[in-house]
Amino acid sequence: MNITLDEAAKERLSAHLGADKILLLTFEDGVGPYSQHAMIHMQTQFSINVISNEMEKADYDEKIPSEIGDFWIKGYSKEDLQAEMRIKFNPRLSTFSLSGEGGMIDDNLGFIDFTKN
């Protein structure tokens, strides 16, 4: 598995990253401290989350490489993902999307930086 990001997505996400930060690609199933399933629109399947090294990530047991770092995932969420994926940022709508070789996975990928209080 691999995730490629367009330039706009790289720029937008890189602003939130650093040596002490971890990227998550969260399957919105209500499991774990970062799943917002009950708090956001039901159509959202995944979200991008940023956490610090000290924050809990026990539910995230596998990782997918990208140009800006590994995205940690809940291993069982791989069944809803594809081998080659792409994250794009739409500046007009200020939204991310996640697609794969088989088509769109999530056209409104959420983003939460949990390191910002």
From TrEMBL:
Residues 1-112 form the Core domain. InterPro entries: ATAP_core_dom, HesB-like_dom_sf. This is Core domain-containing protein. It comes from the Bacteria. It comes from Enterococcus malodoratus ATCC 43197.
